């Protein structure tokens, strides 16, 4: 598909400069049980947050139809030392007046990552691995439970009789394990399972065959008998990840594409592949209302202007280069309970993205059209984890909120396609059973 004429890009850039300035928000505080790592100093008022927001979104009186969207076309601004970039990669400089092949091959239709670029995204975890892990956990005998290596102090690193190691996550309250499990199955429903480690559930029974050899360790861990825990395979050789340049500025401002593809053209393939994965992450965290990853960093900008230059919490890179979304327990259940506090960060972060993986967009629009996201999610969960029905009960307000967030995201995708699509008639539409089509 041919690129936009330079004149059109200049017109787009001109109109974006005319957008009204964004306002600053007063400082807000996180839930008491999830305080950020960098608290403000005592003895004075908290500083103003440094993450500016767009004007409020306008909804019609019926509460469902989005009337206006202030979406930014965010691709990549150059990064000095981006994560995951190999030392032998070099930026490609395209002299003025010459064609820009990288821009054409990186994006098609104005808002979709190219298929060629998507094919370069590391494979990550597969459906076959997920099925195999379920079988491993169900038949495993735990022979050791060690501290460290799996996040919170209540978690443990388990070793099975066959030598396999797993992170066992024990929730301070049941909704954390429920959020972890349902976030995992939502990722599978969206086709994002490659980024989320295979997960299986188990019940703590000190005298049961699975745990009988670690009764002493169970007592030391103070785990409640009969509680449900999640087990994911322990992943060695993970590395930290720093957010890409568009979300990394010290003033907290999201960086839109400001000219005719110059920033995108000069990015290496490794950087572009990273951006494909990051756009999926931002969509996923918005849908689950997960505040314990990039959103937490945005909140911390008010007292730590360099936080975006450091490792992102609960996000790592595997040896093959795929991003790994870890510790999703803040999603869906607990995240929905406190969504009103964190959406002032989550929504503008979502609106900074107007380029998507096409397959992800298809899944979102199908769930929007069907208006049955919670039912489909719980069916998928129950099919794989029938022994733990207590976690398959998503409260009606949370089920409705999941659908509303999917509807909001679908409208955002449609808005981006209408605004930035290559051809005036190239609009994404929902048509019967076809889901996503073009006119």
From TrEMBL:
Any one cellular component term from GO for this entry?
A: extracellular space
Write out the ranges of the annotated region (Disordered): 25-54, 77-101
Task: Tell me the GO BP annotations in alphabetical order.
Answer: cell-cell signaling; retina layer formation
Q: Where are the transmembrane segments?
A: none
User: According to the lineage, what is the superkingdom?
Assistant: Eukaryota
PANTHER family with a match to the protein in the record: FOUR-JOINTED BOX PROTEIN 1
Q: What is this protein called?
A: Four jointed box 1
């Amino acid at each position: 598909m041919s690129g936009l004429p330079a004149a059109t890009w200049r017109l787009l850039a001109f109109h974006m400069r005319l957008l009204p300035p964004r306002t600053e928000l007063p400082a807000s505080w996180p839930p008491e049980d999830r305080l950020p790592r960098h608290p403000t100093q005592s003895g004075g008022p908290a500083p103003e947050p440094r993450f500016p927001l767009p004007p409020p979104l306008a909804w019609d009186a019926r509460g469902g139809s989005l009337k206006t969207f202030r979406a930014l076309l965010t691709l990549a601004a150059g990064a000095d030392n981006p994560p995951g970039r190999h030392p032998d990669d070099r930026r490609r400089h395209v002299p003025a007046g010459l064609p820009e092949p990288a821009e054409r091959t990186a994006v098609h239709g104005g808002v979709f990552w190219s298929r060629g670029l998507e094919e370069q995204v590391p494979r990550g975890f597969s459906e076959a691995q997920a099925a195999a892990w379920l079988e491993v956990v169900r038949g495993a005998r735990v022979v050791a439970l060690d501290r460290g290596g799996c996040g919170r102090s209540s978690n443990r690193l388990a070793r099975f009789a066959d030598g396999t190691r797993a992170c066992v996550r024990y929730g301070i309250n049941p909704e954390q394990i429920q959020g972890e499990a349902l976030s995992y199955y939502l990722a599978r429903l969206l086709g994002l399972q490659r980024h989320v480690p295979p997960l299986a559930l188990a019940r703590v029974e000190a005298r049961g065959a699975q745990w009988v050899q670690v009764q002493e360790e169970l007592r030391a861990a103070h785990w409640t008998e009969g509680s449900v825990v999640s087990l994911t395979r322990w992943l060695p050789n993970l590395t930290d990840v720093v957010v890409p340049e568009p979300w990394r500025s010290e003033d907290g401002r999201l960086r839109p594409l400001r000219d005719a593809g110059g920033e995108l053209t000069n990015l290496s393939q490794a950087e572009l592949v990273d951006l494909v994965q990051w756009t999926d992450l931002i969509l996923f965290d918005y849908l689950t209302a997960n505040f314990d990853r990039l959103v937490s960093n945005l909140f911390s900008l008010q007292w730590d202007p360099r936080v975006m230059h450091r490792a992102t919490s609960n996000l790592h890179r595997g040896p093959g280069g795929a991003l790994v979304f870890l510790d999703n327990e803040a999603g869906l259940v607990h995240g929905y309970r406190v969504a009103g506090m964190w959406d002032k960060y989550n929504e503008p972060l979502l609106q900074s993205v107007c380029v998507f993986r096409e397959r992800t967009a298809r899944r979102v629009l199908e769930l929007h059209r069907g208006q049955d996201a919670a039912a489909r999610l719980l069916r998928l969960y129950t099919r794989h984890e029938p022994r733990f029905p207590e976690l398959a009960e998503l409260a009606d307000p949370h089920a409705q909120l999941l659908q509303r967030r999917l509807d909001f995201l679908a409208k955002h995708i449609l808005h981006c396609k209408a605004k930035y699509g290559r051809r005036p008639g190239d609009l994404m539409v929902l048509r019967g059973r076809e889901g996503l089509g073009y006119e």
